[in-house]
Amino acid sequence: MIERGILGAVAVCIAATAGLWLLAMPDEPVRALQDGLGAAALATIIAGAAVRRSSE
Fold first, then answer.
1. Helical H runs in the chain?
2. Which of 5, 35, 36, 44 has the most beta carbons within 10 angstroms of its beta carbon?
3. What pLDDT, on the 0 to 100 scale, is given for residue 45?
């Protein structure tokens, strides 16, 4: 169960970074990477909260 949350967070990070970089900021890969890492952190927090609630 936890592995799925982690894999989901990684997938969100990759998709957000690639989408942001290719569609919105093709000339700014470093900024897109920073924004993608922020999305990954947020997804990890949300996935962690969801796992905690389902285990209670």
1. 2-19, 29-55
2. 36
3. 85
d(CA 16, CA 40): 8
Predicted TM-score (pTM) of the model is 0.59
Tokens 């700014």 belong to which residue?
A: 28
**Region 25-48: what's the mean pLDDT?**
81
9-24 exposure pattern, b = at least 16 Cβ within 10 A, e = fewer: beebbeebbeebbeee
Selection from 44, 42, 22, 41 nearest residue 32 by Cα? 22
How does DSSP classify residue 26?
A: T
DSSP secondary-structure letter at 55?
H
